[in-house]
Design goal:
The protein is α/β, with parallel strands linked by helices and about 425 residues long. The protein has helices at about 55-60, 65-75, 80-85, 105-110, 125-130, 130-140, 155-165, 185, 200-210, 230-240, 260-270, 285-295, 305-310, 320-325, 335-345, 350-360, 365-375, 410-420; strands at about 5-15, 15-25, 30-35, 40-45, 90-95, 115-120, 125, 150-155, 175-180, 215-225, 245-250, 275-280, 300. Keywords: Flavoprotein, FMN, mRNA processing, NAD, NADP, Oxidoreductase, tRNA processing.
């Protein structure tokens, strides 16, 4: 057993479990475990690169069954993979990485309303590695914030691997952003620009797979290419590099408000073995169910929808009053984000006149008092009445076109339109 060094993750194929590993001579083998109702655990081995000698095959075939089970158990002990494998779930309910918004406090809230899996906002990998201040400001979590995927923006495998190694003890997996369409990202080789450089994507995945603990996931979030064939080919290449799952935003880089291409998403899902998460146009639970039934994707990811309605995945058509109550009783550190979220959440809870007044409030104490009066919210956490306006911190150029001190518009749509592309 000491002769085997695991180098790749676990993928699921129905009742089969597949492990790719190398021995100390760097020869790659594939171990496939079958669970049969009659014969129990059966194991088969092969090498895609050479004919295995009889001696080596004898050594591999005589690994004790309990050791093989230990390998499988250690590699599958990941709550993200467990979500995809849970037979009781029709699909995994996922919150998208959203700049400024999918931070710890919002993740706490949506987990109260049946959101299974959360992504952090994108963090610039190079800044995270170089700056202790960036690390402190860009990533906060706690023991209840799981399962959690941290998304990085990187344009080379070195930054991606180094940043991932720093953060991996505090999350369940890391994700590479290959979808951000912002001009600065494209100019600097980040986000959607990586779609034109698939070798960089594959190198990031392969290099990290060689460094990451086997029970952590690696994923890629991307956009569609210009045609279905190219999109499928890219996803298959990324799968072969060793990802645990793929998230696909159903629009191209140039598309903004067009309907997502469900036909292409369905084709991608049918063409890869790893789970696929659909992203785009998830505005209600019934909407998610319909798209899942058509595409077959294992996960449904919402951005705008869940921002406006944190109870989306629990089946609420609009923000439940309890979500506002819970938001006011979560410990916050920044007034701007505290207020912005409430602007989104209260859109359908307040009259137009009340919304206009509420959206222009500048003090936390006024925000809390307004909601206590309008929505009869009781027992608000006292510290949320005295929040300051200092930003929670930024790193890299990712926020360079997002003004920290801008005022909140009278309509939440104005905010969304100004930053929605940052949500990928």
């Amino acid at each position: 057993m000491q002769q085997i060094r695991l180098v790749n993750g676990l993928t699921r194929h129905g009742e089969k479990k597949k492990i790719v590993f190398k021995d100390l001579t760097n020869v790659e083998y594939v171990l496939i475990c079958h669970y049969g109702s009659k014969n129990g655990l059966q194991v088969s081995y092969y090498s895609p690169f050479l004919v295995i000698s009889r001696k080596k095959m004898f050594i591999i075939k005589h690994l004790e069954t309990k050791i093989i089970i230990q390998i499988i158990s250690s590699m599958s002990n990941n709550p993200v993979i467990d979500l995809f494998d849970d037979p009781s779930k029709k699909f995994v309910k996922v919150c998208a990485p959203m700049v400024r918004y999918s931070k710890l406090q919002f993740r706490k809230l949506i987990r109260m309303y049946e959101c299974d899996l959360c992504f952090t906002p994108m963090i610039m990998a190079d800044s995270y590695v170089k700056s202790a201040k960036a690390r402190a400001h860009e990533f906060q979590t706690d023991t209840d914030d799981r399962p959690l995927i941290v998304q990085f923006g990187a344009n080379n495998s070195s930054d991606f691997v180094n940043a991932s190694n720093l953060i991996i003890p505090y999350c369940d997996g890391v994700d590479l952003n290959c979808g951000c369409p912002q001009r600065w990202a494209l100019n600097d080789g980040y986000g959607a620009q990586l779609l034109k450089n698939p070798e960089i994507i594959k190198d990031c995945v392969r290099q990290l797979r060689n460094h990451l603990p086997a029970n952590k996931t690696i994923s890629v979030k991307l956009r569609l290419l210009d045609n279905h064939r190219q999109s499928v080919d890219l996803c298959q290449q990324i799968e072969a590099a060793g990802v645990s799952f793929i998230t696909v935003h159903g629009r191209t880089v140039l598309q903004k408000n067009e309907a997502i291409d469900q036909e292409c998403l369905k084709l991608i899902n049918e063409s890869v073995s790893v789970p696929v998460i659909l992203n785009g146009d998830i505005k209600s639970l019934s909407n998610a169910i319909t798209m899942q039934e058509y595409t077959g994707c294992k996960g449904m990811m919402s951005a705008r929808g869940i921002l406006h309605n944190p109870g989306l995945f629990a089946g609420y058509q609009n923000t439940p009053l309890s979500a506002v109550q819970n938001w006011l009783n979560i410990n916050h550190t920044n007034y701007l984000w505290f207020h912005h979220h409430l602007v989104f959440m209260c859109e359908n809870l307040l009259t137009k006149t009340a919304r206009n007044t509420f959206n222009q409030l500048r003090k936390a104490s006024d925000v809390v008092s307004f909601l206590e009066d309008q929505l009869h919210i009781p027992n608000v956490l006292p510290s949320n009445r005295i929040l300051g306006k200092e930003p929670g911190g930024t790193s890299g150029a990712y926020y360079e076109n997002v003004g920290i001190n801008e005022s909140v518009s009278s309509q939440p749509e104005d905010i969304v339109d100004s930053i929605i592309n940052l949500f990928d």
